[in-house]
Amino acid sequence: MDAMTPIPATQAGGSPVRASRVRPGRRVADRMLRIASLLATMVGAVVLGSILVMLIWKGVEGFSFALFTQPTPGPGSEGGGIANAILGSLILTVIGIAVATPVGVMAGTYLAEYGRGSRLADVIRFLNDILLSAPSILIGLFVYTLMVRPMGTYSGWAGGVALAIIATPVIVRTTEDMLRLVPGTLREAGAALGAPPSKVIMSVTWRAASAGIVTGIILALARIAGETAPLLFTALNNNSWFSPDLMGGVANLPVMIYQFALSPYGNWQGLAWAGALLITATILLLSIVARVFIRDQRAR
Length: 300
Known about the structure:
mainly alpha, MetI-like fold, 71% helix
């Protein structure tokens, strides 16, 4: 046999491999998958782009100075704004994050630092995953049964608790993941200096994972900023300014958008579009801030 003659490849049993038949099939499958992926990406981009363009087009028309200074108008009236809904959403979101942050950070710290390999940590992690994917309307019904019915009225406190339940699993998952990324050598260095585990966690691991933990809190904030279903059963809505004790219906952007968009009044529909654009821009801004924190964490 000539030295330049190629030797055919053989399988394990000694039979030659028919490369000419295998490779064209793989190439065709690869091209089909690329085309299918490209078409799916284009369809998704066109749909999302159309929604965004329509939202900007309709929402900008409803923007005015009164939008941020006047409360929502009555049925069939002209003018007005959504200042009470904006303020109510801010208060409900602050209550939810204020409740969820310490609970989520402490629970995530336990799972990452104290509960490694324990059955209790596995149970908590499993329940947290279930709560993370639970429909928000079920959480609203739960808080309605737990707080609204015994109190006999809707309230901002019930709405804040519902949002806190939604935000907590996001913070727990992010905190645990960020703490697990901290090198074990840092913990060993703290222990070698004679520091107790609690001191090592507060002074070393939390500080090393601070950007990631803050990112989780921001993501949880973006998660609850546009929730509507749980607020329908807890805070409901109010076309005027709410009381200082937050008892009774509390105006908020998600429920206002839902109610005004279904109304037959053109003024209400315009305010709904403006509110939808405002809340979308807010969530986009929070997502950008979270990505900046993630980038800084990776750079460190």
